[in-house]
Amino acid sequence: MVTTADSSTEEPAVTVQHSSAPAAASSPQGHEPAISLERVVKAYRSGSETVRAVGGVDLEIARGEFFSLLGPSGCGKTTTMRMIAGFEEPTEGVVRLSGRDVTGVPANHRDVNMVFQSYALFPHMTVAANVAFGLERKRVPKKEIRRRVGEMLELVELGHRAKHRPAQLSGGQQQRVALARALVNEPGALLLDEPLGALDLKLRQSMQVELKRIQREVGITFVYVTHDQGEALTMSDRVAVMNNGLVEQLGAPAEIYERPATRFVADFIGTSNLLSGTVGSADAAGHHRVDLGEGLTALVAELPKGISAGSDTHLTIRPEKVRIGTERPEGDLSILPGTVTETVYLGSATHYQVSLANGSEVTVYQQNSSDSALVAGRGDAVWLSWAPRHSYALPV
């Protein structure tokens, strides 16, 4: 569904509890941000209790940025977007669009458009008429409407479908019409609330590429809400991972994936192995040994602020970084013996579950090359290894 400036569409409120996670960082561009939130709070009354759906969020989103709010259901991401759009007013804090304080300003006076999961196209209208609808309500001259609608339909590659009705289009094509209807109004920012959720997997993946192409060509700010980590990592310039109404980590997709700041982020973004241990002293190469118990040790290349020798920690290691073999490797590596408990062949890769002597389970993803064979089967003894730079220490 596309919500133009005067829409009254409502959604159920998101209810989460307050936490003390760190606030997010600012826009990377160095210019006045397209959108900024300053200590924004949204609280609801639930009987005699006050519940914070958003617990004090600071964000700066740059002009022309593809920015994603990522998190599980109930984390506050949709409520945050609705406060940007003007469908919800913050209990505390300030919302700014292009430097202008719009806190308390109605949705129809904010320079943003919003696209929802349901397309809400007018079934009796043609594709072109659907896209033109907002411009006609603004009394834009007909010649200008024809020009802008034509350009927008070409952008979303539906110029040849201008005279069709929505029922004659596929789900992906209808979603592109919804995007065109929002973008034709030339908003300062486009807000997208899980717009691909109704599509099947293959079409959703295709639309991810299309969305990024469209955003790059029009050059306006996109703010994208999703619970799908793959979508956020694929399309975004930056991602804010939300949990319990706050931003737990904000950064580029690679930074969030490779260097999660909290255990929640490590668990939520992709698959991660978490090993509990105690940090020891550094070796000659500057790598810290982490005692995992039962005589097992791993290496970590660097320690984040707040973790030092003697600290308890969780090591996070991505499954694709771990190597598996039946012979003990050599080198400056984390090297752990284990026993295979499960193998899953997936065509392009094989997934292994390996049990360690301390009771931990480690997942390994091994890419299948043209001449590769199964490394080991269930019950086989194996060695796991990875480079110290692929271990990342998290606070307990």
From TrEMBL:
SMART domains xref list: AAA
Spell out the SUPFAM superfamilies in the cross-references. MOP-like, P-loop containing nucleoside triphosphate hydrolases
The record's Gene3D superfamilies line, in alphabetical order, gives: 2.40.50.100, P-loop containing nucleotide triphosphate hydrolases
Boundaries of every ABC transporter domain copy:
35-269
Q: Which GO terms describe its molecular function?
A: ATP binding
- Catalysed reaction equations from the record: ATP + H2O + polyamine-[polyamine-binding protein]Side 1 = ADP + phosphate + polyamineSide 2 + [polyamine-binding protein]Side 1
Superkingdom field? Bacteria
Low complexity: bias regions: 19-28
Annotated stretches, region: Disordered: 1-32
InterPro entries assigned to the protein according to its UniProt record, in alphabetical order? AAA+_ATPase, ABC_SmlMolc_Importer, ABC_transporter-like_ATP-bd, ABC_transporter-like_CS, Mo/tungstate-bd_C_term_dom, P-loop_NTPase, PotA-like, PotA_ATP-bd
Task: Tell me where the transmembrane regions lie.
Answer: none
Enzyme Commission designation = 7.6.2.11
Secreted as UniProt keyword? no
| Coiled-coil intervals, chain numbering | none
Name the keywords, alphabetized: ATP-binding, Cell membrane, Membrane, Nucleotide-binding, Translocase, Transport
The UniProt family comment states: Belongs to the ABC transporter superfamily. Spermidine/putrescine importer (TC 3.A.1.11.1) family.
What role does it play?
Answer: Part of the ABC transporter complex PotABCD involved in spermidine/putrescine import. Responsible for energy coupling to the transport system.
Query: Which NCBIfam families does its entry note?
Result: potA (TIGR01187)
Under the subunit heading, UniProt states:
The complex is composed of two ATP-binding proteins (PotA), two transmembrane proteins (PotB and PotC) and a solute-binding protein (PotD).
**Protein name stated in the entry:** Spermidine/putrescine import ATP-binding protein PotA
What broad taxonomic lineage does this protein's source fall under?
Answer: Bacteria, Bacillati, Actinomycetota, Actinomycetes, Streptosporangiales
Gene label: potA
